[in-house]
Design a protein that fits this description.
The complex is a heterodimer.
Chain A lengths: L3 E11 L5 E12 L4 E5 L6 H9 L6 E6 L2 E2 L7 E4 L11 H12 L5 H14 L15 H14 L4 E5 L7 H18 L2 E6 L2 H7 L2 E5 L7 E6 L15 H23 L11 E2 L26 H6 L21
Parallel strand pairs in A: 3-8, 3-9, 6-7, 7-8, 10-11
Antiparallel strand pairs in A: 1-2, 1-4, 4-5, 9-10
Helix pairs in contact in A: 2-3, 2-4, 3-4
Chain B lengths: L2 H25 L8 H10 L12 H13 L12 H32 L1 H14 L8 H8 L2 H26 L3 H9 L4 H39 L4 H10 L3 H29 L4
Helix pairs in contact in B: 3-11, 4-5, 4-7, 4-9, 4-10, 6-7, 7-9, 9-10, 9-11, 10-11
Classes of the chains: A alpha/beta, B mainly alpha.
């Protein structure tokens, strides 16, 4: 049994016309211990809802989430959440914000123990020197580091990140991505992260969940990131696998994410197919795409892909950096 | 604000003050109109009666003020006490009524803010009770409490409770959802959540309510003391009106203004302490 099992998870809201409006139905997937998983998909497909249900902040209409053999029934200190808007208490200093979490986790600790532990995580995220600043005195990147430090400080079994770098500039984002990668690797942390950034997902994750458009969204595929685990943001794009994976994901977001919805969600209730585009044979990409998927889940969108000039994807990563950031 | 701006504004304030004083002075200069009736009155009263002709001049006010400021705590019987004693009575009543109101309004506002059900259930009562002039409660207070001083305290209580109640409820109800989500993921217990997240988050709004309440309480105490009499700065004003001593009345008015300003300043300071920048 996997560390995290999500079984037949559905979230259905009552629609305005009285008919049920499903955000997603019967999602089934699992995450192994120590795995870093990114979920990618267009706005409104229910990514945040999935994360909130795993966190226990939201309830599913049907289905279950089982973590470490226990069903998730509500929020827990076992799952640390990094919120999209960092959610720091503005009246508390950096140290106090983290101490608040640490005291929640270990109420029996004395002041010195709490402070030592806080200092450790503050140093870990590179905020040494800013301990006594209020969040309003910090830049966006520093605030998000405090958010990560706070989630890490309670030593959760699983870390949930809701698009943590969405509001940051590219430079800051890169630095914090490196830090997150280092911290998570050192702690063998199990992570579930929402992102809109394809490069970020490839840099950080071991598996990328591709989610189709809502309503009635499904996890269409699980892309296994076959790049070697030791990754460097500055050299990763020289790896021949990098653009194969990247093109596969971008292609999904541009074309295929729409099609799952129009042709119905056939894969309900079953785990999504696992694909390894990084290991697909050379040259095949960009022409016929049959066979690049292990479980053959790419029947949709073949026609469109051929007409797409291949040059649109090759080259600078920044071109497609924010392809999915179509927030209204 | 730069230092230069500060001194500029201060100089301008002083100028306005001098213009005000001068126009007051010239409009209240004693006229040479001799009235037969007044002469007769003076003769009847002997030397003692010092006529008050119109409003007192600034100089007369200054003289009166000096007398009060140098001897604020004299006590020559129930109708002649120093301004300091009268202010102390008023402040004690405001303090007692206001503190009681804080003790009721803040916890009740918390409950209303946390529970939409209770909020809706209590809303009609609040809406009806809020616009009632606090002085309208006076007969009921006098009848039930049977003590004029305590009735004054009650009136202060009833007038200061509403802004605090409504602001507390609003502040608590509008605490950012993500802070509450943080508390939930950290499994924070309800009491700790109330004291360490909701209270500091709502504190600026609560303090705004407390500031409004204090302003209203200080307005109302003067009227209430005029009504119940006995002691207090409101009674002092009414008593001096009955004595036709307008200099004392004007001095008392200025004092009321100054004390009100100080009270507001103190709560303003408290408000700054709990305000946070998002």
């Amino acid at each position: 049994m996997a560390f995290l099992e999500v079984k037949d998870l559905s979230k259905i809201y009552p629609g305005s016309d009285g008919r049920p409006a499903p955000v997603f139905e019967e999602l089934t997937f699992s995450i192994e211990k120590g795995e870093f998983v990114c979920i990618i998909g267009h706005s409104g497909c229910g990514k945040t809802t999935i994360l909130n249900i795993i966190a226990g902040l939201d309830t599913a209409s049907a289905g279950a989430v089982i973590m470490d053999r226990l069903e998730v029934t509500g929020p827990s200190l076992e799952r640390g959440v990094v919120f999209q808007g960092h959610a720091l208490m503005p009246w508390l200093s950096v140290m106090s914000n983290i101490a608040f979490a640490v005291k929640s986790r270990w109420p029996e600790w004395d002041r010195v123990q709490v402070e030592l532990h806080c200092q450790k995580v503050i140093d870990m995220v590179g905020l040494t020197g800013a301990e006594h600043k209020k969040p309003a005195e910090l830049s966006g990147g520093m605030k998000q580091r405090v958010g990560i430090a706070r989630a890490f400080a309670i030593e959760p079994k699983m870390l949930l990140l809701d698009e943590p770098f969405g509001a940051l500039d590219a430079l800051t984002r890169g630095v914090i991505q490196d830090e997150l990668l280092r911290i998570c690797a050192a702690a063998h942390q199990t992570v579930f992260m929402i992102t809109h950034d394809v490069d970020e997902a490839i840099l950080l994750s071991e598996k990328i969940f591709l989610m189709s458009n809502g309503p009635s969204a499904v996890i269409a595929e699980v892309v296994e990131n076959t790049l070697p685990r030791e990754r460097d943001r500055h050299t990763i794009h020289h790896d021949p696998q990098y653009y194969k994976i990247r093109n596969h994901v971008v292609d999904f977001l541009i074309h295929r994410s729409k099609l799952f919805q129009s042709e119905g969600t056939g894969e309900r209730g079953k785990p999504p197919p696992l694909v390894r585009p990084g290991l697909a044979p050379e040259r095949r990409y960009g022409y016929r795409r049959q066979g690049d998927a292990v479980a053959g889940a790419t029947r949709a969108g073949q026609g469109q892909f051929e007409q797409e000039p291949q040059s649109a994807y090759s080259g600078r990563p920044s071109d497609l950096h924010s392809l999915t950031e179509e927030e209204p | 604000m730069t230092k230069k701006d500060f001194w500029g504004a201060a100089a301008l304030s002083l100028l306005f003050f001098l213009i005000l004083l001068a126009s007051w002075h010239f409009s209240t200069l004693p006229t040479e109109r001799i009235s037969a009736a007044n002469d007769e009155y003076a003769r009847l009263m002997g030397q003692g009666a010092k006529k008050t002709e119109g409003l007192p001049t600034p100089a007369q006010i200054g003289e009166t003020a000096w007398k009060h400021v140098t001897d604020p705590f004299y006590d020559h019987g129930s109708n002649d006490k120093g301004i300091g004693i009268q202010l102390a009575y008023s402040l004690a009543r405001v303090g007692a009524g206001y503190l009681l109101a804080v003790l009721v309004a803040v916890p009740l506002g918390f409950v209303i803010g946390m529970s939409p059900l209770i909020s809706r259930a209590l809303n009609p009562f609040i809406q009806v009770l809020k616009p009632i002039s606090p002085l309208a409660w006076m007969p009921i207070a006098l009848y039930t409490i049977k003590d004029s001083s305590l009735s004054g305290v009650f009136v202060i209580f009833i007038c200061s409770i509403w802004p605090m109640l409504i602001n507390t409820a609003y502040g608590v109800a509008s605490v950012r959802r993500e802070w509450l989500d943080v508390a939930r993921t950290l499994e924070v217990r309800p009491v700790r959540k109330a004291l360490q997240i909701i209270l500091p988050a709502a504190a600026p709004t609560i303090l705004t309510g407390m500031r409004i309440s204090m302003g209203i309480a200080w307005l109302v105490i003067v009227a209430a003391e005029m009504l119940v009499g006995g002691t207090g700065v409101g009674y002092f004003v009414w008593n001096e009106w009955n004595n036709l001593n307008l200099a004392n009345v004007i001095f008392a008015i200025l004092t009321i203004g100054l004390v009100g300003m100080i009270l507001d300043f103190i709560i303003g300071r408290l408000q700054r302490l709990v305000t946070y920048v998002e």
